[in-house]
Structure formats: structure tokens, C-alpha cells
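Review form for a predicted model. The reviewer records the input and the model, then writes brief findings.
Reviewer: anonymous (R2)
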Amino acid sequence: MTWSPNLISQDTVAWGRDLAKSDRSSLADLVRRVADVKGVRWVRLFYLYPETIDDGLVELLANHPRVVPYVDMPLQHASDAMLKRMRRGHGHDRQRRVVERLRNAIPHLTFRTAFIVGHPGETQADFDELCAFVSWARFEHAVVFRYSDEETCAAYAMDAKVPNLVAANRARKLVALQRKIAREKNRALIGREMDVLVEGPSEEHDLVMKGRHAGQAPEIDGSVYLSEGEARIGEMRRVRIVQSSDWDLVGELLEGSLSRAPKKRVALKVVGGPAEKRWQ
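Model under review:
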């Protein structure tokens, strides 16, 4: 059995700031200690922010064999005006530099992010800039949230509210753009061999096992559905990708596959997001 721990908090890079200087350690120190625990195969980090990611952590993501080269960085928007309104603490140029830095430094990086559309004050020009940024950055995974008023949030009192219909249309357009990017990236994986952590039977078909590769976080990034052999929950198996959809992959089990096992032919048809798949 292999372990695949996820380290998650509101701001994971803040690890150690509350400790006395004599006891203080960096997030990179913590991650390295976790990755060195016997039985750990993957360590995955969630919620890193552009202002605080340091060279030590980038080096670890790039080179440690058990630290997944996966960055979850909620960028929220891409126009300077909106980033200022959202109090992000950085602007468009710095955001681009961070993306370039991580892409250049970390081989096989999976970059996950999140955006909000329809925030008070968002103009069509702001939204167009966001779309241009997403097209340029080509994120592996991007979640799109539509702004909604909450009385406890500072944005509730802001002027220049975006009409609901406009916000909904912008959300649909950005989701469609990201879906196209994800589809192209998944299609490029066909023929590649990769390690897949076996998670268990598919929700849609109890004869089909599913797992996830290093670029897929649990429950949020899609799955790899396994065919041509048998696998057990908790195994790390070598798989060749043979099919792709907008969100998911199908892979043939390689080493250790049992020739006498029933062959399970899998075909994916995606009709919506990850929760709206059906089998053929």
C-alpha cells in the first residue's frame, strides 16, 4: 500500500510564520520531511500564492521524486483593475512572471487555478484580458466561479455590480475556453506511459477500476479508467493512455497485468463536467 498525502490550508506557504525564529522552518522543509516518510509515494500541495512561493519550494517541486510537480494557485483574475479590487496584492505582470517561472523551472508541471467572473467592477475589457491570459497560460485545470453577493464580504458594498446574465455568459465562455485547452492537453497524453494510483471501482460501472496520475488531484481533476487487466486498490501501476476526453483518460494496465483477466473495453463520452459522464 502506498500513501499519497495532500497538504492543504487556506495559505499553505504561511507554514512556520507563527513559530519563534529559533524554531522556524520553511514549507519546503516540512514537505521534504513528509516525502521522506517510509511508504509515501506522492506529496501534493494545495493553495500556494504568487506573493510567497520561494526558490526552495520551487526546487523541491522540480526535483524531489516524491513531491508531485503540481501547483494549485488560485489566481482569481488577470486584469490589474480587478486584481486591485479583489485585493490580491499583485498585478497582471507579476502573475505572468510567476506562471513563466514555474513552467520553466518545473518539468511536467500541472498547474491548477481558479477564477471569479462577474465581480463588481468587471468590465468587458477586464474579462477579455482574463480570457487572453487563460489562452496564453494554458492551465491544465482551471475552475470558474461566478460572483454572488454575500453580505459578509467587502465586495457586497462595492458599486458597478455586473448583471447576473452577463456574469453567467462570461462564466460559460471561460469554461468553454478552458475545456478546449484541457481537451487538447489530455489528447496529447495518448500513447504516454505513466504511473497511476488505483483508487477503486468506477461509480458508473463496478467492473471498471479507476485511478489518477500525478497531475490529477483526488475528486477534483478527473480520473484514469483502467482496462486490459486487473488492479487492486492502493496499488501504483504503470499505465499506457489510450483514450481521452475533456476531463478523463482511459489507460491500459502494463506490467503485472494478468493475461487471463477479463478484458474491459472502456469508452468515454463526456456530456458535461466531471460529474456528468456516461459509459458506452
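Findings: The two ends are 32 Å apart (CA to CA).
Further findings: The helical segments are 27-35, 55-63, 80-85, 92-105, 124-137, 164-187.
Recommendation: see findings above.
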